[in-house]
Design brief:
The complex is a heterotrimer of chains A (about 100), B (about 180) and C (about 750).
Chain A lengths: L1 H21 L3 H26 L2 H31 L13
Helix pairs in contact in A: 1-2, 2-3
Chain B lengths: L6 H24 L3 H21 L3 H25 L14 H25 L10 H5 L8 H8 L3 H22 L4
Chain C lengths: L25 H21 L48 H29 L5 E11 L2 E9 L1 H24 L6 H20 L3 H19 L6 H32 L4 H9 L6 H17 L8 H4 L5 H10 L4 H8 L1 H5 L2 H22 L5 H21 L3 H35 L20 H15 L5 H15 L5 H4 L1 E2 L2 E2 H31 L7 H4 L7 H16 L18 H17 L9 H25 L16 H7 L4 H52 L4 H21 L1
Antiparallel strand pairs in C: 1-2, 3-4
The chains are: A mainly alpha (about 100), B mainly alpha (about 180), C mainly alpha (about 750).
Chain lengths: ~100, ~180, ~750
């Protein structure tokens, strides 16, 4: 089970990466990042069966940070949407140097 | 873990939920509509929760459903609705074919490398240092005990800091999301 | 392999060490002091300018005549006629002080030189007295000290320089009295004497080179003294640049000397040279390069072209620098390197041949010049050729002797012409005439107006022509006799140049010398005829104002006249047998310095001619001189001349001579134009604009901009791109791990 869990975790992570690279909608990109976090959580939990409860403790932290991050990130997206009327990442390029 | 006692049961369900998770993830990444994509992601999380429980992380499985699927994904959907992005429109248009192919290639490359590394760096035979039944038999906390004890002992500082982080996030989200008059 | 340098002569224990000779350092320092004081005075006065000193801070711009003839030496005033209406000459405010200091330092130097000379005579020294002042270049294997070498040769030169220099300084007090640049003039003149003394007193070749370059600089400054006229400035530039070509030769010779001998002092090089074989390649190479330097400084073919143009400077400058001292530096150089040259008969033949050719060539041009200073300039080039013939055949005493007598009569000729020009200028100024005051066609019959100058210049003319009793006769005759004597039984006769045997060459050189002597007599008499004899062509109005120059100018002329008359007694030939005076005084005097080299050339014993041959040679020379003078009197009719403005243009062969055989034009086409072309196209447009500006300056800016552009492309602000880069980076890190 452990090896398969790790394999699944890697696969989910990869899918998340592909999603980040391909999607242009900011919210969907954000959700792909959440998918990646979930994959990592799976990896932690799988390995905690081997190395003790510290893995699960870490998963708790990851989840709380993911929650905080989702809240703030979505607030930012709302603010940007109010400005530009679009969540298309190609339109959000004020950092252009 | 229970796979020694009911190997077929656990194995079958593990593969079932695993494949479901994988399929949902792929579907999630390829949907045009944000709402559809979000719902498929919720499905991924459900499947992962099932796997967590099978991996003897019951508490994690529970809070995965409660927090991740139940709170975070709800917020996502909330924002999608708020911004009226629900329709499958050109906003969520995926990049052109070349981009998709390149992304796919990169992804596969990454996956391959991770596999290779995992295989070479990990011991071939994964043995369990702790017999399965003894995790639960540690103390009066039951299944949560072995998780809660380190959380409030060794990792107390991180726990407290995380709570401050959540406070900051709340305040920040309110400030940023406020309508400017 | 560099041999170890020769040991220096011990200074302690030298007979001159306790005498006045230990103050020899004052000899150059006094003129240097004069330069500093006069220079300071000239700077101070530049704030209060006269009307037309080119250094004037507020230049009036109209102060100079716009002369058509470019090599005009201004006599006195420069203020324009009629613009301000005031005719007062602009005498410099500090002029009185300068008149005192300028000549005074020279006279003091001369006095000291005389004192040292007598001390040297009394001490009968055999070796040079080297007075070391300080260390200059202590660099590893090469150590050059600033040291003065007092020996017989340098004392002769010092006496000539300071003596004739003093006379010319006194003359200048009168000649330049109304020039606004009066202190500047004397400052430059003093500086020149300083450098010239360093040249002859230095104890090593680098020190001579310092003086060499310094006199070149002063020559440039003095030729272009009235630099606000472009032609004068151009002449100064030409002199300097042509000189530079020679300096290159001098430098290469020094490099060769150091590489082969390991030393650069005179004593060291002479010692090393003495150990070579006659005809050694090293000696020949060094000698030829030294001669290149000498040819530049002493105006021999092919580097003589600057000297006629140098007549643009004030006439006393021409007298001092371009007749008596600077141009003789080349002769001094060869005499100083006597032993070295003696080891290179091929080089000696080259020197003598070039000298003879120059003598003839310049004489031909002098036959057809109308500007009185140009005649004298070409005469100088021609006589310098004689000197080189002398030192070229190893008759070093003869060469130096001619140097001395030439200094006397040529300075006299130049200063005399200065008096003439001064008078002509004064006359023209009174009548507001803009004619050329230096053109002989505007002169004539001046014997009535300037009798003293007339008689003195005839003395000089007879001397230069080689009429017996006058100094030039003895020196010129000695050179020609030496050439003839060395055609048998000398290293030169045994050697050959370009396939021609040495003895044949020496006879050819002798013949060329005779030809030059004939032409010299002709053109000098021509000059006298057109200037002093015959009717006056200056004009009715001016004639009344022509008069003798003031005594401050005529005084030095008298002294030089006496010297031109009796200067021959410095080195009477052996054949006179002591009947009219001590024989070969100069020869015996110079023997410790040049004797070794001279003897090598003549195979160890003094050159010998039978009495009959010698009388024949003397007779031939005198006959030629007399024939030349007679020819000029017979054929050249001053009555047939017309003033310059009416004179017809030259035609045919006369035109070729008048146009100096078109050498300047040939140089301009062959050398100057290509050089300028290359400078403009290759060096300026190609290298400077293209490579340095374009490639390095602008190119590096472009590269920086390019890098900046590349950097800014990275900052696209597109989050999608950032994500891509991130992922790719992660993949690369993973692959790095998988390969470790």
């Amino acid at each position: 089970m452990l090896a398969e869990s790790l394999a699944l975790s890697a696969a989910l992570f990869t899918i998340g990466v592909i999603g980040v690279l391909t999607r242009r909608n900011a919210i969907i990109m954000f959700m792909c990042v959440e998918l990646m976090l979930n994959a990592v959580n799976l990896s932690f939990v799988a390995l905690s069966t081997l190395y003790g409860a510290a893995g699960q403790v870490f998963v708790v932290f990851v989840m709380s940070v993911a929650a905080a991050e989702a809240a703030v990130g979505l607030a930012i997206i709302i603010a940007i949407f109010r400005h530009r009327q679009s969540v298309n990442l190609e339109d959000i390029n004020l950092l252009k140097g | 873990m229970g796979n020694e006692f009911f190997p077929l049961f656990y194995g079958f369900h593990f593969y079932l939920f695993g494949l479901l998770a994988l399929a949902s993830a792929i579907l999630f990444v390829t949907r045009k509509s944000p709402v559809a994509a979000a719902l498929w992601l919720v499905n991924v999380m459900f499947c992962l929760a099932a796997i967590y429980i099978m991996l003897d992380a019951q508490f994690i499985g529970a809070i995965q459903v409660l927090v991740y699927a139940g709170a975070i994904m709800v917020v996502f959907l909330f924002v999608v609705m708020l911004l009226n992005l629900g329709q499958p429109s050109d906003v969520s248009d995926i990049r052109g074919n070349a981009g998709r192919l390149a992304a796919g290639a990169v992804g596969i490359a990454m996956l391959a490398e991770v596999m290779v590394l995992a295989r070479s760096k990990f011991p071939a035979q994964l043995t369990l240092p702790i017999p399965p039944g003894e995790i639960a038999a540690q103390g009066p906390g039951g299944v949560i005990g072995p998780l809660a004890a380190p959380l409030f002992r060794e990792y107390l500082l991180a726990f407290e800091l995380t709570s401050i982080l959540l406070l900051t996030a709340i305040v920040g989200a309110v400030v940023i999301g406020r309508k400017r008059s | 392999m560099i041999p170890s340098p020769q040991t220096e002569l011990p200074v302690t224990g030298h007979p001159l060490a306790d005498t006045v000779a230990r103050f020899a350092w004052l000899l150059p320092v006094l003129p240097l002091l004069g330069f500093l004081i006069n220079g300071f005075l000239s700077l101070r006065a530049a704030a209060h300018p006269g009307p037309a000193d080119p250094t004037a801070a507020s230049h009036h711009g109209h102060g100079e005549h716009a002369h058509g003839d470019a090599d005009h030496g201004h006599g006195a005033q420069h203020d324009d006629h009629g613009d301000h209406g005031d005719h007062h000459p602009a005498r410099h405010p500090a002029a009185a002080l300068v008149s005192l200091i300028g000549p005074a330092v020279l006279l003091l130097s001369f006095g000291l030189a005389v004192a040292i000379f007598f001390a040297m005579k009394a001490a009968h020294i055999e070796e040079a007295y080297v007075l070391t002042l300080f260390q200059w270049m202590p660099t590893g294997k090469l150590s050059v000290d600033v040291a003065l070498q007092l020996d017989q040769l340098s004392m002769v030169m010092t006496l000539i320089i300071t003596g004739i220099g003093s006379l010319i300084h006194i003359f200048s007090v009168g000649y330049m009295q109304d020039d606004p640049g009066y202190p500047r003039y004397f400052a430059y003149l003093n500086l020149f004497i300083f450098f010239m003394l360093m040249l002859v007193l230095g104890s090593s070749y680098p020190l001579m080179f310092v003086g060499w370059e310094g006199v070149g600089l002063c020559s440039y400054l003095l030729i272009g003294f009235w630099y606000s006229e472009k032609a004068n400035a151009d002449a100064g530039k030409k002199a300097f640049i042509v000189n530079r070509i020679g300096d290159f030769g001098f430098l290469v010779a020094m490099f060769l000397m150091f590489a082969n001998f390991g030393t650069l002092t005179y004593a060291g090089v002479e010692g090393a040279a003495a150990q070579l074989q006659v005809g050694a390649l090293v000696a020949t190479a060094i000698a030829l390069f030294l001669f290149l330097g000498a040819a530049g400084k002493s105006a021999q073919i092919p580097l003589y072209v600057w000297l006629p143009d140098a007549m643009a400077g004030p006439t006393p400058v021409s007298a001092l620098i371009h007749a008596a001292t600077m141009v003789t530096a080349g002769v001094y150089l060869i005499a100083r390197s006597a032993t070295l040259f003696a080891m290179a008969p091929t080089a000696q033949l080259t020197v003598a041949l070039v000298g003879a050719l120059t003598a003839v060539f310049a004489a031909t041009i002098g036959l057809k010049q109308w500007d009185i200073k140009k005649v004298l300039a070409y005469s100088t080039v021609s006589q310098l050729g004689y000197m080189f013939v002398g030192v070229g055949v190893g008759a070093y005493t003869a060469g130096v002797f001619h140097l001395m007598t030439h200094a006397f009569f040529k300075a006299l000729l130049f200063l005399g012409s200065g008096s003439v020009i001064y008078a002509m200028h004064r006359a023209y100024h009174v009548t507001h005439n803009h004619e050329d005051a230096q053109d002989m066609r505007n002169m004539g019959g001046l014997r009535a107006h300037m009798p003293v100058t007339f008689y003195l210049m005839w003395i000089a003319t007879l001397a230069i022509a080689g009429i017996p009793v006058f100094s030039g006769f003895f020196s010129k005759d000695e050179i020609l006799t030496s050439v003839f004597a060395r055609a048998h039984g000398s290293t030169l006769a045994d050697a050959s140049l370009l396939g021609i045997p040495g003895s044949t060459l020496l006879y050819i050189i002798y013949a060329l010398g005779l030809a030059a002597a004939l032409m010299t007599a002709i053109y000098m008499t021509r000059m006298m005829l057109y200037t002093f004899h015959g009717p006056n062509r200056t004009g009715e109005a001016e004639r009344a104002h022509l008069k003798e120059a003031p005594w401050i100018m005529t005084g030095p002329l008298v002294v030089l006249g006496v010297l031109s008359l009796v200067g021959g007694w410095f080195n009477l030939p052996l054949i006179t047998g002591g009947a009219i005076g001590p024989v070969e005084v100069l020869h015996h005097w110079l023997e410790p310095v040049v004797g070794r080299g001279a003897l090598i050339v003549t195979h160890g014993e003094a050159a010998h001619l039978s009495h009959a041959t010698e009388y024949l040679l003397i007779g031939t020379a005198v006959a030629i001189a007399v024939a030349g003078i007679a020819f000029a009197f017979a054929r050249l009719k001053p009555d047939a001349l017309v003033p310059a403005k009416d004179a017809p243009a030259e035609q045919g062969f006369a035109k070729v001579l008048y146009d100096k055989w078109y050498v300047d034009e040939a140089y301009a086409k062959a050398v100057v134009k290509p050089t300028l072309g290359i400078s403009r196209i290759v060096l300026w447009k190609g290298v400077d604009v293209g490579i340095i500006d374009g490639l390095f300056v602008n190119g590096s800016a472009l590269v920086a901009r390019g890098f900046g552009w590349m950097g800014s492309q990275l900052q696209s602000g597109r989050v999608g791109t950032y994500a891509w880069v991130l992922v790719l980076g992660a993949v690369m890190v993973l692959s790095a791990f998988s390969f470790l």
